[in-house]
Design a protein that fits this description.
about 140 residues, alpha+beta, 4 helices, about 30% strand, globular
Length: about 140
């Protein structure tokens, strides 16, 4: 499951969230493609300016996933909410319409079937796809 939340058409912003993947999907090309398709819809179809990703600051896998996908860390809202009787800090990440062309290109390069061998193993990482845009 991966959802678009808090859509604000007036300001052209929304959030990607409620991310729950079955173990079989975790760390697979399908998860990257799902996030890519949502971002593409938000920026290309809806014409939004901003896509946010927020997570518990202690959720290192979510933080790594956001950064891996090209989201930029913007900061931490301390004591943002209470979850299970604990004050939770929330780390915010975002992509903007200025970021999108580069992120889109890197993700498309990584998702290209030619990037995977016959066993489905990636030939280059998504980080390498981003880096190749900088050279």
């Amino acid at each position: 499951m991966l959802t678009i939340m808090r859509a604000d058409p007036v300001n052209g912003t929304t959030e990607i969230g409620a991310i729950v993947y079955a173990p079989e999907l975790q760390r697979s090309p399908a998860t990257t493609e799902a996030a890519h398709l949502i971002a593409r819809h938000v920026f290309d179809d809806l014409g939004y300016r901003r896509l946010e990703w927020k997570c518990d600051s202690l959720n290192e896998p979510s933080r790594r996933a956001a950064a891996r996908l090209g989201f930029i860390e913007e900061g931490t809202f301390r004591n943002a909410i209470v979850v299970k009787n604990r004050s939770r800090d929330t780390t915010w990440f975002a992509l903007t319409d200025d970021d999108w062309p580069r992120v889109h290109q890197a993700q498309r390069r990584w998702l290209d079937p030619a990037n995977f061998d016959d066993d489905g193993t990636q030939r280059r990482t998504l980080a390498e796809s981003f880096a190749s845009l900088d050279t």
